[in-house]
Write a structure and sequence with these properties.
paralog of FGE (formylglycine-generating enzyme); 4 helices; four-stranded mixed sheet; 12 strands; 291 residues; alpha+beta; globular; four-stranded antiparallel sheet
Amino acid sequence: MRLLACLAVSLFSCQADPPPPPSLPLTADSGHPVIRSTATAVVTATAAQAPRPPRDPACPNDMSLVAGRYCPAVSQPCVKRPQTRGGEARKQCQHYGPSRCLSKTRRAMKFCMDRYEWPNEVGAMPRTLTSWPEARKMCAARGKRLCTIDEFNFACEGESMKPHVYGHMRDKSACNFDRKYIARTHNYKRWERCMNNPVCRGEYERLDQRKPAGSMKRCVSEHGIYDLNGNVNEWVMRPKQTSPRRSGLKGGWWGPVRNRCRPITTFHLEGDWGYEVGFRCCKSPTATLDR
């Protein structure tokens, strides 16, 4: 997957993940190259269940309320760079200093977000190999929608504007990222077709390094939302764009890429899908919030 170069200091949410090592080009509905990501069928883990935050009546049972004042533009200075070179993980900032809001005013935000990546079940493996229109349709079938860029940012970083969902230091033991890159040698089909094809599924399982939803206990936001960094990339809505460029990818995946709250990959068109690309849903809160 061709990815844009990123700056060491993040000021705005307009960057793309650095590329993994080159592999065979793939094409999607759009006819553009795209990285296919490894995702296996939904599997329920037997590991300990992640704690569920108290339910808010403004949101459905499987969602968390995110509310507060969001800073649209932030400065997140890098204070510790890697001492060695080589490999994408070593290009990433290891420690960020205090974040600073560059916007003159913050914006009040209130919305509901799925606690886990689709299928939004604790202990389930997140679904991938799904295009943006498919993800949007699946959210709509549950009375939800895809999250916007700002919603993802705020749910991940909170009012303190943390670079990573858990804090300011890069730590692969907190979230599922910086795993060893495995070269892709297969053009993946979409989820159902791949899972029903022995060759596609076998190649998918060879690359797959996802973790069950909620299994990384420290990879949780202050609102009780899990895996917003790493595990699988997540489709979001770019409100100011028109078809076929309304799609964006946020949060990073298990590979050695940025895996922070603010960066976004914008060059994948709506018809693309990938082995590391999943999604979660958002929803506007009900009127009970303002009782």
